[in-house]
Amino acid sequence: MRQIISVAFAATLFAASGPARADGMPPDIAEKIAAAGRVVDGRGMNALYAPLHDKEPYAGAKVTRDVKYGPAERNALDVFTADGASGARPVLVFVHAGGFERGAKYTPGSPFMDNVALWAVRNGLVGVNINYRLVPEAKWPSGAQDIAAALTWVRANIAAHGGDPARVYLMGWSSGGSNVATYVAFPQFHAAPGGGLAGAILMSPEPIDPAVADMARDSYRKYFGDDTSKYAEHSPMPGLVSTSIPLMVAQAGFDPPAIEQQSTNLIAALCKSPKGCARNLFLKTHNHMSEGNAIGTKDTELTDQLLSFMNV
Hints:
- The protein is α/β, with parallel strands linked by helices and 312 residues long.
- The protein is built from twelve helices and eight strands.
- It has helices at 7-15, 27-36, 42-49, 114-121, 142-157, 175-185, 218-224, 231-234, 237-242, 257-271, 290-293, 301-309; strands at residues 61-68, 76-82, 89-95, 126-130, 163-173, 199-203, 247-254, 279-287.
- Helix 1 crosses helix 10 and helix 5 crosses helix 6.
- It is globular and about 50 Å long.
- The protein starts with 6 loop residues before the first helix and ends with a helix.
């Protein structure tokens, strides 16, 4: 079994990246996040953050919905581009959260997950949000396979939307981060040599290592299977440590302990590797849901680092 690194050690690692800030987080939201504690409260955080985001139609952005990238019903993506943009822009491909059993790239009337792609457009990128297969249809490694199919579409078609296929960044949140980690770690799933990526971003990925993660959640077992002897070979940890793809890991200070431990183990393993630590960010005042919901607001603690990582 892999060594589990202490959360106290994680704080030392994250401190090396500089002090945590809460740039632009409204004080009332910070207080409510702290009062809620280490919970995953999607409805509560959505209600807090929705008023801070634009509503459709989005000024200055063109949105192309439900472009098919594969044969499954959920093999669809949305492309966000800036009105009147010229030249080839970097591309951010975003993989939503949802525990492998729910979630979507777009929900009518909600600003989430549009907020991520819209933020990308307003900061000089092309944004792509993807859906992917969910349990019970989805089984490991369908998430990575769907990402590969979506990236194949992006490489072939994104230039027509003003994107640069040579500068594609892949970002996943929670279970979406787990799928991104699997795609990055296993070259057999890559859409192109080297993954076809300029970099990958993992936002509180869960589970990042099924061999040592808390697998009590039913949807996790449905996705990874009941045969726990297979979990080690399904773990992306060895591939993440050895990959040449630049990585960034973001973690929320109020992540549930089991999720925090997963990010902690990953950061520690990367720091012990010959290539050294990946870029990492400890979002002290955020929880598991607020870290993504804040993208596109005046709270730029995460997004400033994203732009720096992507050289935008």
